[in-house]
Amino acid sequence: MKVTEHIKNAKKTLFSFEILPPLKGENIQQLYKGLDSLVKFSPAFINVTYHREEVVYKKLDNGLLEQRSVRKRPGTVGICAAIVNKYNIDVVPHIICGGFTKEETENALIDLNYLGIDNVMVLRGDARKADRRFVPQVEGHQYASQLVEQVSNLNRGQYLDTDQDYTNATDFCMGVAGYPEKHFEAPNLESDIEFLKMKVALGADYIVTQMFFDNAKFFMFYNKCREAGISVPIIPGLKPITFRSQLTSIPKTFHVDIPTELSSQILRCDSRKEVAEVSVAWGIKQAQELIDWGVPILHYYTMGKSLIIQDILKKVL
Q1: Mean pLDDT of 271-293
Q2: Mind listing the domains of the chain with CATH numbers?
Q3: In which band, very low, low, confident or very high, does the pLDDT at 68 lie, cut at 50, 70 and 90?
Q4: pTM of the complete model beyond 0.70
Q5: Pair type for strands 90-96 and 119-123
């Protein structure tokens, strides 16, 4: 079922979450262990991230460094198929610009279509750690809007090879990212929303936001989107804090603010258990306010950590 159909058919706020593929060399059993504890809350769907290759350097016997490209978390499509088979839950694989040519993107979408997966999350993706800015793949896309357009074209039966005799249309439901505190590369929130509006015009069906810890910022973003003429569903993305160190790592990595009230409470904690208690209390309050406001889905970024999310869901679902 498409994400938009879940929203249309829902009689209350739904729940979904996002997972990371295992590191290369690990098996899927650890992933299943985390999923087992979350699927009991009946998620509407599960997002599975995609990670582009990273540049690593290996020191050779002669003292020189050899540059290599390594994909540390492969398996997104396979994991999606495994989740559908094991849990019979809808999945939303991420499709990114970085590391893909247009042809490889088309082939990946064809694979997903064959598997009966009809949802995709369309993203530009992050720059590689070795790059100072995002560098697209040769023959790939520079912007998420271009990727949205390619998926939309495929939904209309328009393939890259225009000489094909058979061009069956796909029927993907597309999600895109929104940033209540603006994308860090955007000059301001208003221009960021204009780019978001363009992705919706090109065929995006719904929006999932970057994580935020202050609901007022989500409400402001939502209202600005509606004022700009964006009418598709907007799903809030949430992530509980699990470690005190995340007070600095989350703002640095994801370019979001942590409210003074929350950071002050966590800084007073003497143990991880106390941090978890503060995070759960904050998460329950944040989730309940969003539910009362009428959001269609609460979408949680698990980052491989689900215990705090479980404690929050027990209280709000």
Answers
A1: 97
A2: 3-316 (3.20.20.220)
A3: low
A4: yes
A5: parallel
